[in-house]
Amino acid sequence: DAVKEMLEHMATTLAQGERIEIRGFGSFSLHYRAPRTGRNPKTGDKVDLEGKYVPHFKPGKELRDRANIYG
Fold first, then answer.
1. Whole-structure pTM value
2. In CATH, what number does 1-67 get?
3. For residue 30, which of 6, 16, 51, 53 is within the disulfide window of CB 3.0 to 4.6 Å?
């Protein structure tokens, strides 16, 4: 399946720390979240969370403009 293969390639590229840009649509990159203290939603206990990288999507101007036509 072509879509599955493309998504796998994108995930591998991001995992290597590279940015992905799809012109007219947007870009994908990794953002670092610093370590912090969170809370367990069930118990309310404090939990130390490690720093980690998370995927980030930034929509391109064309996508933002088109979304505002319908929003």
1. 0.77
2. 4.10.520.10
3. 53
Q: Give bridge partners of residue 27 from the DSSP assignment.
A: 21, 58
Q: Facing residues of 22 across strands?
A: 26
Distance from C-alpha of 58 to C-alpha of 71, rounded to nearest angstrom: 18
Q: How far apart are the first and last CA of the chain?
A: 32
Is there a contact between 38 and 49 (Cβ–Cβ < 8 Å)?
A: yes
Confidence of residue 70 (pLDDT cuts 50, 70, 90): confident
Residue 64 half-sphere exposure, CB side, CA atoms within 13 Å? 7
User: Rg for the chain (alpha carbons), in Å?
Assistant: 17
pLDDT in tens, 16-57: 999 999 999 999 999 999 999 999 999 999 999 999 999 999
